[in-house]
Design a protein that fits this description.
Family: Belongs to the ligand-gated ion channel (TC 1.A.9) family. Acetylcholine receptor (TC 1.A.9.1) subfamily. Alpha-10/CHRNA10 sub-subfamily.
CATH topology of the largest domain: Acetylcholine Binding Protein, Chain: A
Helix content: 25-40%
CATH class of the largest domain: Mainly Beta
Pfam family, one: Neur_chan_LBD
Radius of gyration: 44 Å
GO molecular function: acetylcholine-gated monoatomic cation-selective channel activity; calcium channel activity; transmembrane signaling receptor activity
Shape: rod-shaped
Order of helices and strands: HEEEEEEEEEEEHHHHH
Keywords: Calcium, Calcium channel, Calcium transport, Cell membrane, Disulfide bond, Glycoprotein, Ion channel, Ion transport, Ligand-gated ion channel, Membrane, Receptor, Signal, Synapse, Transmembrane, Transmembrane helix, Transport
Largest sheet: 6 strands, mixed
Protein name: Neuronal acetylcholine receptor subunit alpha-10
């Protein structure tokens, strides 16, 4: 039985291709357009090269048409209604990918075609396509991309070959999930265009691949470290000025952000639109730079020497008074919201002239030699003490003012870092 079926298939093959040529369109009327149905099945996303803007896909492409010269009566060949033959033996439509981004010439797949008794030809062929795709990274790593694959005949116009999509979208039944991209759909659309070189219309079918990036890996590797570093930067205002590490912390944070910025720049294409994470890096680096500059100015206030001028009255009333109470910057022994009471400078007391006779060779109680010498020494000691106390009080006032400014900028910059981080992380939800 199987031997007889094989002999019938050989006889059918000889009869069909005795006078057949694959060089011409298989239509009975040359003025009639040949209808080709195109179906695409997405199997795998191999690579998305954002820098070169090239999308590499693994597709299954099915083309169906009717060959007017490859028909037979199944009853004449023992009920044989379909045969499978090499695709190089029959005429095939020259449908190619218009936006191909591969430098190599397109190679024909060496798969068989299924030929039915009514002349219907079905050609299933796998293909690895490299197509150009305009990548918009303005919302990276929370971006979505639209990549179109346009298929059409290269030499036949719409009067000779008409391309129609099968269904409203490409099939995703056999798609292998990608670790970086989530496929939202692949709708199909037919267009008829007239190019400047020719007056005939050229139909084509465009399959638009809708992609959304899986941002979990980028959040963990690029965004979350930057958020933690940005929250660490304002803590430089909380470090004591005597530790000598306030400026070092700001510079270290700035260098760490620069390293992450370089890692991001290596993977992103050079485009006019700055990615969202790039904007966040730039804003964070600007904030760290400004905070480091303010830290240097505050340290200058902290280390004002004895020769510095007293704190201005407006700064004493506004910053060291109201702002210090609002920020709970208090001295030792003070409670939050309580200001330091003003210290009264001790006034020198002249020695009592009615006291007993001073010790010395002079036995008279009102001896001028002892009175003048003692007053000069007491005045000198008192003046020296007052100058030292005034300089020390001025130095302590500048230190207190520096602590108030540290606490003030700590709240401002920590709030800025927290708000910027939340705005970026909300995009991931």
């Amino acid at each position: 039985c199987f031997g007889a079926e094989g002999r019938l298939a050989h006889k059918l093959f000889r009869d069909l291709f005795a006078n057949y040529t694959s060089a011409l369109r298989p239509v009975a009327d040359t003025d009639q357009a040949l209808n080709v149905t195109l179906e695409v099945t997405l199997s795998q996303i191999i690579d998305m090269d954002e820098r070169n803007q090239v999308l590499t896909l693994y597709l299954w492409i099915r083309q169906e048409w009717t060959d007017a010269y490859l028909r037979w009566d199944p009853d004449a060949y023992g009920g044989l209604d379909a045969i499978r033959i090499p695709s190089s033996l029959v005429w095939r439509p020259d449908i190619i990918l218009y936006n191909k981004a591969d430098a190599q010439a397109p190679a024909s797949a060496s798969t068989n075609v299924v030929l039915r008794h009514d002349g219907a030809v079905r050609w299933d062929a796998p293909a690895i396509t490299r197509s150009s795709c305009r990548v918009d990274v303005s919302a990276f790593p929370f971006d979505a991309q639209r990549c179109g694959l346009t298929f059409g005949s290269w030499t036949h116009s719409g009067h000779q070959l008409d391309v129609q999509p099968r269904g409203a979208a490409a099939s995703l039944a056999d798609f292998v999930e990608n670790v970086e991209w989530r496929v939202l759909g692949m709708p199909a659309r037919r267009r008829v265009l007239t190019y400047g070189c020719c007056s005939e219309p050229y139909p084509d079918v465009t399959f638009t691949l809708l992609l959304r990036r899986r941002a979990a890996a980028y959040v963990c590797n690029l965004l979350l470290p930057c958020v933690l570093i940005s929250l660490l930067a304002p803590l430089a205002f909380h470090l004591p000025a005597d530790s000598g590490e306030k400026v070092s912390l700001g510079v270290t944070v700035l260098l760490a952000l620069t390293v992450f910025q370089l890692l991001l720049a290596e993977s992103m294409p050079p485009a006019e639109s700055v990615p969202l994470i790039g904007k966040y890096y730039m804003a964070t680096m600007t904030m760290v730079t400004v905070s480091t500059a303010l830290t240097i100015l505050i340290m200058n206030l902290h280390y004002c020497g004895p020769s510095a001028r007293p704190v201005p009255a407006w700064a004493r009333a506004l910053l060291m008074g109201r702002l210090a109470r609002g920020l709970c910057v208090q001295e030792r022994g003070e409670s939050c919201g309580q200001s330091r009471p003003p210290e009264s400078s001790p006034s020198p007391q002249p020695p009592d002239r009615e006291a007993g006779p001073p010790a010395g060779p002079c036995r008279e109680p009102r001896c001028l030699c002892h009175q003048e010498a003692l007053l000069r020494h007491v005045a000198t000691i008192t003046n020296t003490f007052h100058r030292h106390r005034a300089a020390q009080r001025c130095h302590e006032d500048w230190k207190r003012l520096a602590r108030v400014m540290d606490r003030f900028f700590l709240g401002i910059f920590f709030s800025m870092a927290l708000v910027m981080s939340l705005l970026v992380l909300v995009q991931a939800l």
